[in-house]
Amino acid sequence: MALLVAFAGILNIVSAVTPSMARRLDEVRQVVPGAVTQSAAAATVASGILLLFVASALRRRKRRAYQATVILLALSAVLHVVKGLDIEEALIEILLVVLLVATRKEFYAKGDPRTRWTAVWVGLLLLALDIGIGLALVHLRMDRIVAPHPFSDQIEHVVVGMVGVTGPLRFVHEGTADLVAAVLFALGVLTVGTVTYLVLRAPHRPPMLSAQDEARMRALLERYGECDSLGYFALRRDKSVIWSPTGKACVAYRVVSGVMLASGDPLGDNEAWPGAIQAFLQEAAEHAWIPAVIGCSERGGTAFTRAGLTALELGDEAVVELADFTLEGRAMRNVRQAVARVERAGYTCSARRLRDIPAAELALLREQAAQWRGTQTERGFSMALSRFGDPTDGECVTVTAFRPSQEGPVLSAFLNFAPWGRDGLSLDLMRRDRAADNGLNELLIVSALRAAPDLGVTRVSLNFAAFRSAIERGERLGAGPFQRAWRWILVFLSRWFQIDSLYRFNAKFRPIWEPRFICYPGAGDLPRIGIAMLEAEAFIVWPFPRMRRPYEVVTQPSAAETS
Q1: pTM summary value
Q2: Which among 223, 277, 219, 217 is positioned nearest to 245, based on CA atoms?
Q3: Per residue in 216-257, pLDDT tens?
Q4: CATH 3.40.630.30: does it fit domain 204-557?
């Protein structure tokens, strides 16, 4: 239906710009004035452009798009008759109306109720701006207008010009008349397009992770938290959650630019995953959101693909098994030397559960975390909590590094790890003083690995390395030209996204590489999903504070902190 409506839009434009049959046009002009037929032709062009706009929304089953399409097609059928007795085009569009009405139950996606009045106010504002710009344009060409030209004629010329109709003003040169007409029509198309977008855009849902939801999710983590290293990050308070019918599993997500974006595997009993995934997909379809999952494991990706999504390998997660870790051997020489150099400089480290850190030191850590961040917005979505020091996160492990000074030890860096079940940790936060010695991050991680047995930890998840396998294959002996070119592109993009540097840093610790996947409905949705991912991870940030989403708050205090 979306393709047929797009075809109808193109048909309207082509029909309006091509000459009508002289005999038919004469018959119409015996009933209606010539100015009316000219206006009908201009309106047909406008309706064709609008049909092209709504076709993509119709493909996503939006109810508002269906209603707008029926109205536009019915109006277009009338305009085809008025502008030149084009019966064939009118019959085609009446047939499309019948088909749409017959399939009306297929268009069930809800719109955002808040955008109705937004579209009205934005439309009125743009209309006022268009009239102001049009009047200014006319006044700049005042010396080229054939007199008389009262102000009422100027207003009429601008208003009708925005719908492609020639107004009452007459210009000395045809070039000036064409320029004014083109600018006015462009302003009209821009206004109509903006209002149409606001009416048809996917609804935005603010995060709604209630205290009850968080308590239920923590209960699931207590039983099934060891299944996924990203499980604890589902507790971010800028996410919403949707539950399986049994309540034994859930999917945490955030709506970003029309994409219903989940991260990691579903939380809970894997036998209840299909119910949670089905509820996730149904919610996306109901609101015309694009469902997508980033960073899920192979088991989670299998569950999502069984539900109809497509999986694509996104990168690898570096997991260090404590039983296999050692600083001995030639392969670990660089890490061993970096750690020894920093330790000789007098740096000392300690690893503690967050609940065991004194309040004064915790306040210092929070203050330094904000100062060392380097950007206004906290980055992270799939592998970050976006908060530090929350009383509910007492099981987190914080590793601090202090350098010696005459005034006493000075905090230089720290890491924060989220719990991964009962015996694992997952790296959440890395903060350091830029003036600190090189190798301090290596010392912090090695200190965490050394302290892990005392904390009851047997495995530690480090950073996620995007496209790791592509970089590794591209530098191997015998790599093909496509592999080398793809690696070159990734290394070039690392100037902004740290793709290659994170892989190199993780590889120092000889980890086990666990593949992570992105799941999506179709290849055509990947560009939009990619933009939503960058926005969720805060690589794309709205330039003005009023345009930022509520989830871009740097820290959200918990109920305990507020009280």
Answers
A1: 0.73
A2: 277
A3: 999 999 999 999 999 999 999 889 999 999 999 999 999 888
A4: yes
